[in-house]
Design goal:
Helix 2 packs parallel to helix 3. The strands form 2 sheets. Strands 4-3-2-5-6 form a 5-stranded mixed beta sheet, with helices on both faces. Helix content is 34%, strand content 19%. It is of the alpha/beta class. The protein contains 3 helices and 7 strands, in the order αββββαβαββ.
Length: 139
């Protein structure tokens, strides 16, 4: 038989914070940023190509596109690459490159030495064709 004595029960204070929801939200945010960052970087690079009155579209299936912005940022097939690693990335992508085409799309304000550097890397790797991307001249 249970007898009430009238004395108040002592409640214990639970002083620990539940961190599981915070960790869950943080991991979800990290995953979202990991997925979106390459997409955002790809869309933020704008390259204003020089104009030319002659030019033919390159075959996209075997061409590897390298973009250089006026700030010197480089993307290879839409993936941002640091200058120090351009040659290594090109080596990885251009193995067995005898039939491949490298298309360099450099902003018209890009220093020529950077374009020449990329062309030199491609030539060392023995690519089939080298090209420079241009915008067709409207006139």
């Amino acid at each position: 038989m249970h007898v009430e004595t009238g004395a108040p029960k002592r409640r214990r204070v639970f002083a620990e914070m539940n961190l599981v929801p915070l960790i869950d939200v943080s991991l979800i945010l990290v995953i979202i940023f990991m997925v979106l960052t390459p997409i955002l970087v790809n869309h933020q690079l704008t390259v204003k190509l020089p104009k030319a009155s002659s030019g033919a579209p390159a075959a996209q299936d075997s061409a590897i596109t390298i973009q250089i912005t006026k700030n010197g940022a480089v993307t290879i097939e839409g993936v941002a690459v640091k200058w120090e690693k351009v040659e290594r990335e090109m080596t990885l992508r251009l193995s067995k490159a005898s039939g491949k085409t490298v298309l360099v799309q450099a902003d018209r304000l890009t220093p020529v030495e950077k374009v020449v550097m990329v062309l030199d890397f491609a030539k060392k790797l023995g690519v089939g064709k080298l090209g420079i991307g241009v915008t067709p001249d409207a006139s």
